[in-house]
Each structure stands twice: as C-alpha cells, then as structure tokens.
Amino acid sequence: MYTRDPIFWRAGAVSSLTVMVAILIALTVNTIGVISTGGANVPPYTVINQAIGYVDDDSQHEYVPTIGGSDPLFGHVYDEHQAEALIREGKLVIQSRACLDCHSVFGTGAYFAPDLTKAWLDPVWRQMWEPMTQTHTRADAMVAFLMEPDKYPTWTREMPNLHLSRDEAKAVVAYLKWTSSINTNGFPYGFQADPDTPKGKQAALR
Ligand code: HEC
User: Fold this and answer.
1) For 5-38, what is each residue's pLDDT tens digit?
2) In angstroms, rounded to a whole number, what is the distance separating the alpha carbons of residues 26 and 14?
3) pTM to 2 decimals?
4) Separation of alpha carbons 117 and 36, rounded Å
5) Which residue minimizes the CA distance to atom 23 of ligand 1?
6) Using an 8 Å Cβ cutoff, are 41 and 31 in contact?
7) How far is the CA of 6 from the centre of ligand 1 (A)?
8) What is the number of the ligand 1 atom nearest to the C-alpha of 93?
9) Nearest CA-CA partner of 60 in 203, 197, 186, 180
10) DSSP single-letter state for residue 201
11) How far apart are CA 86 and CA 71, in angstroms?
12) Can you tell me the distance from the alpha carbon of 170 to that of 168, in angstroms, rounded to the nearest whole number?
C-alpha cells in the first residue's frame, strides 16, 4: 500500500517542514518591519520633538497614538543621534535602577506600581504633579517627580527616592515620551490619556 512506503512519509515531512519554515521567515520579516524603530508601529526616536496624543480609533476599537506638530522636549530639538543617545540612556537608567522591580514597561516587570509605557500621556502630570512641583510643562513635572518622588506622593503607594540626577531624570522622560508614541494595540487596556493631549486622527499611527 502507498502509505506503507517510507518515501511517502519522508516527502510529507520534508514538504510540511519547508512550508512551516517559509511561514516562519515571512512572519519574522513582517514582525521586524512592525516592531523596529521607524517601523509601522514604532516611530523614530526624533518623535520626542513632536506632540504625542492618544485617540480612540473607531475602526480599530482601540486607542492609537497620534503624532502632532512640533513640541520639542525641554525646549530642545534633538537630531537623530542625540535623540537615540538620550533614549538609550533613559533605558539604561531604568534598567540599572531596577525600576521594573515595581513597574512594568510593555507589560514586562512587576505590577506593584503603574505600567510606564503610556506614563507620558497620564492626565496626573497636568492635574496634580505640575501644581505640586510648581512646574509648567509635563516634562519638567516628570523630572521634578523622578528626582524626588517621595516629596510628591499622589497615591497610597509611594515611590521611593532613587536619587536620580537631573540628567538621568531627563533621559527617562525622553524614553517615556518615545514609548508613549508606540502603537501597542491598545495596551495597557483601559488607560485613560490626558484629554488635553493633541488630537487628530489623520496623524494616527497604524
Ligand atoms: C519600590 C517601588 C518603585 C520603584 C523601584 C520605582 N517606582 Fe516609580 N512609582 C512607584 C509608585 C508606588 C508610584 C505611584 C506614586 C504616586 O502616584 O504617588 C510610582 C510612580 C511612577 C511614575 C508616575 C507614573 C504615572 O503615570 O502615574 C513614574 C514615571 C515612575 N514611577 C518612574 C519610575 C522610574 C523611572 C523608576 C526607576 C528609576 C521607578 N519609577 C522606580 C513605585 C516605584
């Protein structure tokens, strides 16, 4: 009988393996295009020079980030290399101070304190931390909070002072501004962005 012939089974195994490898390669190439910096879901680092918003997209039934007009971070326009270096430093600060012992970013880390992926868009900066820290921009309020979080508690859980320098705090803010611009397919679920952040669906990232 044909099915007793080992050649039949060998040919079946080889052809299904070939198809699977081809699918895996296609999926990998597609994923890299979506998740690399400058890819479909992840804006280039220079996005920190622009206003970032968050709108409920009816067609996708989830929130998507929007990239608006010029909104330089700390009043400075960073070129490609400066922006990348700053964001890289912010990531290193987050890693070296073990922020993820309490927080998560993109859902990875601990769940003691809020996920930080969209922290830049949190209404609390404008509503509470700007008046508390006597600053006038979200970026400055974040720096003031990150340098002395024990001085500005809003919640029953307090963040300890990790003695970040001003430069380290600024780098973290740049990193968090960039992560807030990434289309995370609605993650974290139920996050309410500041209604005052720039709108404009035409600029929505897909
Ligand atoms: C021991 C736990 C702990 C560690 C470690 C920690 N945090 Fe926090 N963090 C908290 C808590 C608790 C809050 C909420 C504070 C509040 O609302 O008053 C918070 C709030 C924040 C916020 C505001 C989030 C928002 O949108 O409301 C940011 C940003 C932040 N932390 C960044 C950091 C960074 C960066 C580090 C590392 C340098 C860090 N945290 C380390 C516990 C921690």
Assistant:
1) 899 999 999 999 999 999 999 999 999 999 999 9
2) 18
3) 0.90
4) 16
5) 119
6) no
7) 62
8) 38
9) 186
10) G
11) 17
12) 5
